[in-house]
Amino acid sequence: MTGRSRLGRWPMLLWVAPALALLVVFVYYPVVENFRLSLFKWSAFSKEQFVGLDNYAHMVADPVFWGALFNNVAYAVVSVVCQVFGGLVLAAVLEELVRGRLKGILRTIYFIPAVLSLTVVGLLFTFIYNPQIGLVNGFLGAVGLSQFQHSWLGESATAIWSIIAMSQWQNVGYMMVLFIVAMQRVPRELYEAAYIDGASRIEAFRRITIPLVREMTLLAMIITISGAFLVLNEVWVMTAGGPDNASQTLASWLYKSAFFNDKMGYAATIAVAIFIITMAASIVQLFLNRGKSVQY
Amino acid sequence: MTIGKRLAGLLATAALIVTACGGSSATAAPPAASTGASSGASTVPSAVPSSAGSASSAAPALSGSITVLDKYGDPRYAPYFDGVAAAYMAANPNVKVTIDHETDQGVKDKLTAMAASNSLPDIYFSWAGDYTKKFVRAGMALDLTAKVTGDWLNSFGSAALSAYTYDGKLYGVPITLDAKYLAYNKKMFSDNGIAVPTTLEELLSACDAFTAKGIKQPIAFGNQFGWPAIHYMTQLNAYDVPAATLATDYNPATGAFTDPGYLKALQDFADINQHCLTQGSNGISHENAQANFINSKVPMHYLESVEFSVLTKAGGAPDEIANNWGFMKLPAPSGAAGDTGALEGAPDGFLVNANSPHVDIAVDFLKFLTSLDNAQKLTKDLGWLSPIKGSATADNTFPQNIQVVDDISKASSMAIWLDTVTQSDVAKAYLDGVQGMLDGKKTPADVVAGVQAAAASAKSSQ
Amino acid sequence: MSGNISRPSYAAERSGSGVGSAIGRVIAYIVLTLLVVMIVYPMAWAVLNGFKTNLELFSNPWGLPASWHWDNFVTAWNLGVVRYLMNSVIVTVASTVAVILFSAMSAYALTRRKIPFANAITVMLLGGMMLAPAVALVPLFRLLQALHIFNTYWALIILYTAFRIPFTVFLIRAYMITLSKEMEDAAIVDGANTWQIFWLVIMPLSRPIIVSAALLHALFAWNEFAFALVFINSNDLKTLPVGLLQMQGRVLSDWPVLFAALVIASIPMILLFLAGQRQFIRGLSEGFGKG
């Protein structure tokens, strides 16, 4: 082989060295270290103290932890229904019914929320949910439904659901576009054949579209679910987990435990819980994904 | 390789920045001399003819740079502090003062993160109470007892210093004088023929009277971050719990919170909420609620005296409120078990980082910040009262502020904010618990139980 | 492949068969229109409120502003939005360049060359995709201090790079595997060394995936919140997502300024999206899967 030094293949290791080094130092080491830290108790104002599994015992008994876990689950379930299935249906409707420029314009509009930062959207929605000047209460008042007005982010019964609703607003268009891309890879002839056989649009959607974008759907579900267990930004911006920790998620509770409540070891323990959950999701994804990732 | 190089470069850069402000031939800051007594103020400054402070002694030249963390990021406040820093740098050409402005809410996690990362700035904001004491216990706050002496010491009103004095040692330099009051719209009271209440019971019936007149939820209240409700609790605890018991319970080493007064205070607050306060308050910010008082939509609002300027014409308030507002202490329940002469309030103050390499500059800057000139400017520019005697005059502030100075001097004691005076877990139990109470999810008894549990675990970890 | 999204729809061939379909179509159009309103109206509302006075916002939250207060935008700009924008640009650009460079180098070595331990290295590089950044938050807080890069741009640049290498390698690797060997062999015959082949042959051939990967990374870095919140203390170094949050606390009693800030902060990404919509969607759909 010309152009190569006599050292053989070894110099090629230099090509992967920067990436590997960064990964080992800033990703793998911290994740391993986190397990160790979860066995200690310390704060900004005190030294590390080994406490064994105390933090885990505390976590299991912590109602806020379980409330946060519930909120993450709620986030996942609603997002799968609204974003994945909503996005799928929306994509089909847009593909089937709308043509020409209007289609492009609608697609663009639906997608725009996805390019806004979560902080921007979160802050915007704190105004939309504001009980006094907000759009939601204003709308309810205008159509005579003022009995349904709420202090949306200020009541424990509505806070997390309001945040989840915001998230659907932001992401449904994104999912829709992904499904459109997937649908356009479905051979057109399949539909033509079905229509010649007298199939209705809904039948065609059920018999052709759904099976053929099934992989995409599965993937979308997994991504949505594992994403739902990492929610932090919108919660921190909109409610900081309040009122009375009612809208806390695992990640926001981790952050609050570490930097507000000053319980670093406990925060590391919550991180272990997040690790286990996201790891499980990744393994499922890997399993589903095996050998068929690029075959649309 | 790449990383190593990067790190090296980066460390070099950092070193450059740190040492950038070298130099030597500096003079010490000429501290503003405390001039003679100003007329109109209720306190008499110690008149010192000669110029006070370090300039008279053979002061070493100051050089270096310091960083200050405050919570005055609001564009209405920040310019004052930037101006003081600029003036100080003009007087000390070899000193660089950088102020990092945080916000009231943002400074809380930032201070924790900085303490945890050993990156506290040279001077940092801290609330009075156990909030400051935890920095003291960790050796992160410099003992200022030997630094704040002589005329500088005497220029402070005594109450302000005591808020930052623990075990006889001074750890913070107070920069404001602040108390919590129920402001009311005189015109709305008289227009509706409702008498200004003097007891808690009268307050509740005044609220009912307003409600009957169609002015619902007559006290503007927004509790988004939890502390506004805690301000009610601060004053109510002082009313309902004997002072000696409070002192014991607010100490993390001895806190138990078993006195029945704590439950009573929470029940009083539940009554106030039911009769008077804006509902859905957990989703409304304090400032959002305040706008309704300023716009004369509701007749009452509980706020700090440092906020009074928003009610004045100069602060942008409409005439209807600017010419018609008065204030009072939160009316006490009749037959209260605690000190009804207590007034809620505490100064804001700055601590000096015990590990700062520039303690001399830090102390000197704080001295400059609290000079009479700058104190008067604080009052004039921001409408905030200063702990420096003689800083508020009829010329530089509105009449209500002069009244506050008088009122504070008459208070039998000052009740420091409940969420900063107590150990942080106890504070959180109150913050979360009362939010839950307003949400209808918790009862006063639940809150007390939570507070007791937090106090017990705080005590065991002492 | 996925770039083609303007294919004529089946609607053309299958228009209007029966009453039921007509009703369904009307309903669908109503839903589509409602959705447009639900998306556009809040954004328009935010823009309008950016022009009001605070008093007006409370007295007339719905209507048009009485006069257009451009000064809110000036105030927002001066309060730090410009600073936050700049910080976001610095961190985004730097980490994008780093992540693309390191990932492309790795992908090249793993797919086009013989390298020792190729399988083990691939597993290590891709395995990082399974780890959530939140898990590393507390240990990183200490690590970055020990390395003296806490509260610097480097903290974010390095972390954004490190945490996105696995995904970016995944994308680029999948693409590079498919490249034919001919041009590379020709270059070798011409006496090009490894480095030259990488830059002059492989990188140009991989341009589509590089663009997609860069866009995906930019979107991630621009919006990242947790690291930016925890590892940056100084206001001067804050990126937009955290800076805007801080700004909310600063203008508690002047909301129109915050609305103005939100609008300013959103413009760059919206423009970028509108300009490169096709690339964007392509990138997102390719990247989707492991985001």
* Coarse shape of chain A: globular
Q: How large is the count of helical segments of chain C?
A: 13
Query: Share of helix among residues of chain C?
Result: over 70%
Tell me the name of the CATH homologous superfamily of the domain at 82-255 and 267-287 in chain C.
MetI-like
Distance between the termini of chain A: 38 Å
Describe the structure.
The complex is a heterotrimer of chains A (296), B (462) and C (291). Helix content of chain A is 69%, strand content 3%. By secondary structure, chain A is mainly alpha-helical. Chain A has a single domain, classed as MetI-like (MetI-like fold), CATH 1.10.3720.10. Chain A has a two-stranded antiparallel ribbon with strand order 1-2. Chain B folds into two domains: 53-177 and 347-409, D-Maltodextrin-Binding Protein, domain 2; 180-344 and 423-460, Periplasmic binding protein-like II (D-Maltodextrin-Binding Protein, domain 2). Chain B has 19 helices and 13 strands. Chain B is globular, with a radius of gyration of 23 Å. Chain C has a domain at 82-255 and 267-287: Orthogonal Bundle (MetI-like fold), CATH 1.10.3720.10. In chain C, helix 3 runs antiparallel to helix 11 (240-250) and helix 11 (240-250) packs antiparallel against helix 12.
Write the layout of secondary structure elements.
The complex is a heterotrimer of chains A (296), B (462) and C (291).
Chain A: H1 13-37, E1 40-43, E2 46-50, H2 54-60, H3 63-97, H4 100-115, H5 118-128, H6 135-142, H7 159-183, H8 188-196, H9 201-212, H10 214-228, H11 233-238, H12 250-259, H13 264-289
Antiparallel strand pairs in A: 1-2
Helix pairs in contact in A: 2-13, 3-7, 3-10, 4-7, 9-10, 10-13, 12-13
Chain B: H1 2-19, E1 64-70, H2 78-91, E2 95-101, H3 106-116, E3 123-126, H4 130-137, H5 150-154, H6 158-162, E4 165-166, E5 169-170, E6 172-174, E7 180-185, H7 186-191, H8 200-212, E8 219-220, H9 227-240, H10 243-250, H11 260-275, H12 286-294, E9 300-304, H13 319-322, E10 325-328, E11 342-344, E12 349-352, H14 359-369, H15 372-382, H16 399-410, E13 413-415, H17 418-421, H18 424-438, H19 444-460
Parallel strand pairs in B: 1-2, 1-3, 8-9, 11-13
Antiparallel strand pairs in B: 3-12, 4-5, 6-12, 7-9, 7-10
Helix pairs in contact in B: 8-11, 9-11, 11-19, 18-19
Chain C: H1 19-49, H2 54-59, H3 71-112, H4 118-127, H5 137-146, H6 153-177, H7 182-189, H8 194-205, H9 207-223, H10 226-231, H11 240-250, H12 255-275, H13 277-287
